[in-house]
Amino acid sequence: MTAQILDGRAVSAKILDRVSREVEEFVDATGRVPCLATVLVGDDPASHTYVRMKANRCAKVGMRSRRIELDAGITTETLVDHIRELSDDPEIDGILLQHPVPSHIDERAAFEAIAPSKDVDGVTRTSFARMAFDEGGFASATPGGIMALLDAYDIPLSGKHAVVIGRSAILGRPVGMLLLARDATVTYCHSRTVDLAKHVAEADVVVAAVGRPGLVRGEWIKPGAVVVDAGYADNTGDVEYEAAAERASYITPVPGGVGPMTIATLLAQTIKAARDHEAFRTGGPA
């Protein structure tokens, strides 16, 4: 068996085409261009690259982006003040705080300063709760992108055993909740899990989200399983790709799998936020 590629680049391109049409319709109807604010703290080269990519994608779909760059030595209080100003700004539809932030910053406090209506990256407690209870909140962007990718390939989830490796607040935990909402049976694994190989070998769907290259051995994969590799370090995923691809039915490449879906989901949620804001201003439908 050789796995079929879950092509995030191709699927994200279709999503961005749709977003571009929605942005054009929004601008024609309102005379206002949706805007995503990106907040970057410090000089991490990878973070600068990610923010630049997001700004470029905004431009391609017709959105504005506003980039706020802050010194690495900034305090949590000052960062929170900047984010609250963006939350109060009627010209801003979505806010992205590029993470990770410097270690002395209370990242959770900074996330919670984002107004839930502008939390298009899905990082606040409010967004997580609304997503978990299926109450219409914004999904965390990477988990939301993973679900959109699985849907694009009509991969059934109901009744399947999904193993999520990782428990971060913006990836592992929310993707497990989204899978649970699709009637999958979800097992969370992490750094303290005993016999990780045994859990992976029982999974119909594996989502690896740790950032440790080669953590998941190819021979652990159950024949016919679906493998989603959301890990990324040194241009390598968490899963031994070649060996896993010989056993899986579907697999994401790294890069080119989950990454493009994250940005597409972020922008899809930004145009949704813009419509919601306009509906609130005018009292009309979203």
UniProtKB/TrEMBL annotation:
Binding site for NADP(+): 166-168
Record-given protein name: Bifunctional protein FolD
Any one annotated GO CC term: cytosol
One BP annotation, GO: purine nucleotide biosynthetic process
Residues in Tetrahydrofolate dehydrogenase/cyclohydrolase catalytic domain copies: 6-121
Keyword Hydrolase assigned: yes
Function: Catalyzes the oxidation of 5,10-methylenetetrahydrofolate to 5,10-methenyltetrahydrofolate and then the hydrolysis of 5,10-methenyltetrahydrofolate to 10-formyltetrahydrofolate.
UniProt xrefs under InterPro entries: Aminoacid_DH-like_N_sf, NAD(P)-bd_dom_sf, THF_DH/CycHdrlase, THF_DH/CycHdrlase_cat_dom, THF_DH/CycHdrlase_CS, THF_DH/CycHdrlase_NAD-bd_dom
Acetylation in keyword set: no
Catalysed reaction, written as an equation: (6R)-5,10-methylene-5,6,7,8-tetrahydrofolate + NADP(+) = (6R)-5,10-methenyltetrahydrofolate + NADPH; (6R)-5,10-methenyltetrahydrofolate + H2O = (6R)-10-formyltetrahydrofolate + H(+)
Family label: Belongs to the tetrahydrofolate dehydrogenase/cyclohydrolase family.
Domain Tetrahydrofolate dehydrogenase/cyclohydrolase NAD(P)-binding: 140-276
Source species, domain of life: Bacteria
Keyword annotations: Amino-acid biosynthesis, Histidine biosynthesis, Hydrolase, Methionine biosynthesis, Multifunctional enzyme, NADP, One-carbon metabolism, Oxidoreductase, Purine biosynthesis
Gene3D superfamilies recorded: Leucine Dehydrogenase, chain A, domain 1, NAD(P)-binding Rossmann-like Domain
Enzyme Commission identifier(s): 1.5.1.5, 3.5.4.9
Molecular function (Gene Ontology), one example: methenyltetrahydrofolate cyclohydrolase activity
Protein species of origin: Saccharomonospora viridis (strain ATCC 15386 / DSM 43017 / JCM 3036 / CCUG 5913 / NBRC 12207 / NCIMB 9602 / P101) (Thermoactinomyces viridis)
Subunit structure, interactors included: Homodimer.
Pathway named in the protein's UniProt entry: One-carbon metabolism; tetrahydrofolate interconversion
